[in-house]
Each structure stands twice: as structure tokens, then as C-alpha cells.
Amino acid sequence: MTDQKGTLYGLGIGPGDPELMTLKALRILQSVSVVAYPAPDTGDSLARSIAAPHMVEGQAEIVIRTPMTPGNFPADDVYDRYAAEIAGHLDGGRDVAVLCEGDPFLYGSFMYLYERLSGEYRAEVVPGVSSLGAVAAASGRPLVSRNQVLSILPAPLDEAELERRLGDLDACAIMKVGRHLDKVKRVLARMGLADGATYVERASMPDQKILPLNEVDGARAPYFSMVLVRRQEGNAEGAEK
Amino acid sequence: MTDQKGTLYGLGIGPGDPELMTLKALRILQSVSVVAYPAPDTGDSLARSIAAPHMVEGQAEIVIRTPMTPGNFPADDVYDRYAAEIAGHLDGGRDVAVLCEGDPFLYGSFMYLYERLSGEYRAEVVPGVSSLGAVAAASGRPLVSRNQVLSILPAPLDEAELERRLGDLDACAIMKVGRHLDKVKRVLARMGLADGATYVERASMPDQKILPLNEVDGARAPYFSMVLVRRQEGNAEGAEK
Fold first, then answer.
1. Complex confidence, ipTM
2. Can you name the residues that pair with A199 across neighbouring β-strands?
3. What's the whole-model pTM score?
4. Does the beta-carbon distance from B104 to A137 stay under 8 Å?
5. Interface of B with A in 82-141 (CB under 8 A)
6. Residue A232 has what pLDDT?
7. CATH homologous superfamily of A132-230
8. Which residues of A93-116 are buried (b: 16+ CB within 10 A; e: fewer)?
9. What confidence category does residue A169 fall into, taking pLDDT thresholds of 50, 70 and 90?
């Protein structure tokens, strides 16, 4: 009775402003019986707060709490357990939407549920506005143009690896800045790239903060912060043909 | 009388499926007096076809036709002329929305109008779902996870530069494949990266096409095609701490 099973949706709900959800995500969100979303070990879920204005009454909710291991990633058995809980709903014929901040397949944790469930169940990924576009819009400057190369660097990378990658830069977005802010500032300063860099925190949200990286105090930023680095003017064009 | 002037909007309308437009883009699209959109030198505008189901009657339209120069980019005076036309509407107090496929600040041509007009007029960029997320969703595989580096490489880059960039790969999306398909296939084959590569054409549109790169025939792809390349399994994790 395969066709009685529910569908799993990975729903990109955008970078923070509930109005940056797509029409498709809205339609699916309002059609499902079960809504699941990631949340920190303790405290509220950002994903749920983005979707909250659009949710409908009577939806079951699954709060996906994923305590971090020393490697900074949740243990596999945590996702095994949530996948089993979601599978129970799908087996019962109930559609389940997993809310994903930004885009589900761009550094999203949805992939850990997708890889466990998409073999057995119908699964659909609905792309969303990523924080990348929101940060660029907030900063008032294009990320990249023409034939420039854009690199997305996770701030947890080792300092040497960050420096190596930044040495080959057209434009880059350093994501997941969080507790790595000091390291990021240090590397960029050493490379002479700090002056043109922009810091953006919680793009598109009411408490959005944008300032030159050099004016950012403190050693720690929120997880949802990003640093944009662009190659200086004068050599702004990549190879063209 | 600055406050009588209209507002310029760069409206990210998503990768192709009209349902992947955001609620915010929809609201603004339906509120403006003037809608402008890029179109090829001859023929229909993809951007307009994405927005068409949502447009309202009585909106003036500006078709932005940008003949390509030998360098493959439009001449400055073309944008000067369209900026002047749009400025005329803004001076008259009419809001103007420029439709942008995908996201306005990720390789979008909107930046050429923005840089000409945002000094004098109120301008707002509304981020959209980029083709990147749509392509990943269509391919059914995450683009990047954990601390992997994602690079976005424009296919027009020189063959040697493409190869150099690909040598340092976690995951990458090669954009603007178009007439560069043969070169892209050649480079990836030489580097042993062709087998795992996925070709996606017109992601999220009714005529979407997804296949292994090795099964793609022909030397030329549509402009809206992308090749996804991922590092092989076995060394899939970047440095972590």
C-alpha cells in the first residue's frame, strides 16, 4: 500500500523574514499534518519562528533537538531516532514537512533525515532563499559579477586552510562565523582583506546588523552571521572569453 | 520633493517555477506601476514568463534588451539608457520593479542598474531562490555539508583556470555552461571528475532535465544549465574542529 504513505518535504523557509518564504513552501506548510523543525539543545527554534505566522491549527509538531558532539556535529543516533519518529507518521499516511532555514541542501541538516528516509518514502526538496542572497541584499553590494568565482567558506575551517582558500579569492562568504569570529578577523587582517570586509548578522530579520568587519567587537558572533569578502577594485574581473 | 520619488526594486523571482517566488516579491510585484525585465536580443523574456502568472493589469513594462559585445557583456551605454528610462518613472513617483531570475545579487545583471540608480533613488533588493538551490533540489543530493567549501565557477573561465580551481575542490557548481559545455566536459574528464558530475538544465521548470554529465550529448547547453561536481566519497569531510 505504498501510495498510502505520506510524503516527506524538506521545506526551505528562507533566511529569517517570514515574507521571504516561497509560495510553494507556504502551500505545502499549510497542507501537511506534521511539522518538524530543528531547535537548539535548549531554547526556541528559529525555523519555527520563521514559519509560525503561516502555520495552521491542529498540526502535530516534532522538535528536532540535536546536542552537539565534541566534533561539533550531532551523533548519528540522534538522527536515527528522529527519522524513525518521522517514518511512523509517513507510514500512517501523514505528510511531514521538515522546516529548513535558508535552503535545505546548502549546508542544511535536513540532508541527514533525507538520506535516511528518501529511499523508502516519497521525498521532495523545496529550495528556499539562502542566507547568502539575503546577506548580499542587506549589504547593498552584489556578491559576484560576470566571471568571478564565489567561494563559500565555513568559518570552522582551520586557520591555515582558511588563509589558503582566501589567498585565491574573487569573492567569498564566510559562513557559520559564531565562535570563530576572532580567528576570521585575524586571518583577514593578516592578509590585508579586513578593510573591505562586511559583517552581517541575522540578515532579513528585524534585528539585522550590518557593519564593516573592522567595527565588530568581541570574539564571538551569533551562529547566523556571515562575513563577506571581495577582491579589491582594480583586479575585479576574472578571465573572460 | 524626494519623498515623491518612486522606489526601485530588484526583485528576485526565483529559478523558474512561478511558485518559487517569495511572498515578498509577489506583494511588491503586484504593487508597482512599472515592471522591467531582461530579455535576449530577440525573443521572449524568461523573467517575464516566470512572473506572468502574478502580474496585474495596467502595469507598464520595460523590456531590457542587452545585445552582447564580443567580451560577452553588454556595453555600458545600454544600461545608461535603461537607467535613464527607469529614472524617468521614478522621478514621476512611480515604483519600478526589475525582475531578476534567481537572486538579484548573485551574478545578476540588476547590479548594473542598481549601481547607476541607487545613489539618487530609494532602492531595495529582494533576495530570491537561486538556481543553485533549485539545481541541488532537482539533483536529489545536497550541494555541501558540514565544513565543506562550495565554489561557484562560471564556465566561461579559461580552461586552465577552470582546471586549477577544480583541483582544489570539495564541491562546486559550474554555472553559465551554455556554449562552454564541451570545454567543461573535457576538463572534468581529464581530472577524473566527470563520473560523479551531474548536469541540470532549467531546474524547477516544466522542461527540467537532469542527467549524469557523461550522458549529455552535444557541445552546447542552454544558458540556464549547471554542472554539479562533488569530491568523491572517502575524503568527503573538510577540516573540522
1. 0.91
2. A211, A227
3. 0.91
4. yes
5. 103-108, 111, 114, 118, 125-130, 132-134, 136-137, 140-141
6. 61
7. Tetrapyrrole methylase, C-terminal domain (3.30.950.10)
8. ebbbbbbbbbbbbbbbbbbbbbeb
9. confident
